[in-house]
Write a structure and sequence with these properties.
The chain has 367 residues and is of the alpha/beta class. Strand 2, helix 2 and strand 3 form a beta-alpha-beta unit. The protein is built from 16 helices and nine strands.
Length: 367
């Protein structure tokens, strides 16, 4: 049987996942510790070297304190951020303090004191994290992959499994597109959707559930007015605009959402017309091939942007293009001109924003 490790070290790029895993481990470590004075949590978040020193001095005092009533103590050094590649993390004084921390951990007696350290972010190229991987009960929250989308999908799937439910086809992709790179919200939305769907008789989280219940927080691309506008439904679009302005909304995010969607569809339309991609039952087919042919024309435009189709989620693009009849290239160009004109008109008629967008919508959809 392998000897017990001196301490537990949990790290990762997502502070929410690290903190969540840390809380679960701390609960397990303290399950048999009845004395609340034998459980201590120390905040390891530090904005400068002085705060690093203060946190580690408190940690040292805690692990060297003998339990008042005997028995094991459990100490959690949480939210450590000075192991990252930051000015504070690179400071010579911080590096010396981390060396002292390593010596302290080497001398721990796990039978007397259980130590848990949670850190995010962490520069795993450095000697201390490498040492922790070999000498601690080590865990990497969120996995070791570089694909943020895959990592978030894994988080949602794991949460759903723990709740005894699964995602129906398209539901997970829609959830990630609506929520964006927000792990906490992905988890909470999965819980909410699971509660709504129920876990009986093989129930699943359906795409319709996500569309109805999950807020549109990613990048504004899912404004109801944009969805309605590009479906070609005039009545729905006017009603969506009324709801937006009735609740105190402004015209600018609506115009921005419409422009972003229109830019993507312009690029899709051009590729469809050239025969490089085609619309199929699963959305847009041939996008990777088109990227190989035309991606070099977007040099420097690597961040996610509506100006570069190939930075978009392929499923999302297919969803946009296949959700309704794809407008003609002429119609999309005219749309863009209408959005510019509406923005210029709003500058002159700032108190009539809803009326300006209603007029624009009628011109575009009733034509």
């Amino acid at each position: 049987m392998a000897p017990a490790k001196n301490f537990t070290f949990i790290c990762g790029g997502d502070d929410y996942l690290v903190g969540r895993m840390g809380a679960e481990r701390f609960a397990a470590l303290t399950a048999d510790v009845a004395d609340e004075f034998s459980r201590e949590t120390i905040n390891g978040f530090a904005a400068n070297m002085g705060e690093v020193e203060t946190a580690l001095n408190r940690f040292r005092e805690s692990v060297q304190t003998v339990s008042m009533f005997g028995g094991k103590r459990v100490v959690w050094l949480k939210d450590v951020n000075f192991l990252a590649d930051t000015p504070t993390g690179r400071a010579e004084g911080t590096l010396k303090l981390v060396e002292d921390l390593q010596q302290l951990l080497e001398g721990l007696n796990p039978a007397e004191t259980s130590v848990l350290i949670t850190a995010s972010p962490v520069d795993r190229r450095r000697s201390f994290p490498k040492w922790c991987e070999k000498n601690a009960d080590f865990a990497l929250a969120g996995g070791d992959g570089d694909d943020a989308g895959e990592a978030l999908a894994g988080v949602a799937l794991a949460e759903a499994r723990s709740l005894g439910i699964a995602f129906a086809p398209g539901a997970l992709e829609l959830l990630l597109a609506k929520v964006g790179a927000n792990t906490r919200l992905v988890v909470e939305e999965t819980r909410k959707l699971a509660t709504y769907a129920g876990a009986e008789n093989g129930a699943k989280i359906e795409e319709a559930h996500v569309a109805e219940l999950t807020p549109n927080v990613a990048e504004g691309d899912f404004f109801e007015a944009a969805e309605a506008f590009f479906s070609g439904d005039l009545r729905w679009t006017l009603a969506a605009l009324h709801r937006h302005f009735f609740s105190g909304g402004d015209a600018r995010p609506i115009i921005s959402a419409l422009q972003n969607r229109n830019r993507i569809l312009l690029q899709v339309r051009a590729l469809v017309d050239s025969g490089d991609v085609r619309l199929g039952p699963r959305g847009l087919d041939g996008l990777p091939r088109a990227q190989a042919a035309y991606g070099n024309h977007f040099i420097g435009a690597t961040e996610k942007s509506s100006y570069n189709l190939f930075t978009q989620n392929a499923w999302y693009v297919g969803k946009l293009a296949g959700s309704a009849k794809l407008p003609s290239l002429r119609r999309l160009i005219d749309n863009q001109q209408e959005f510019i004109s509406a923005f210029e008109t709003i500058i002159r008629r700032s108190n009539e924003q809803e009326e300006v967008l209603r007029e624009m919508t009628v011109r575009c959809l009733a034509a």
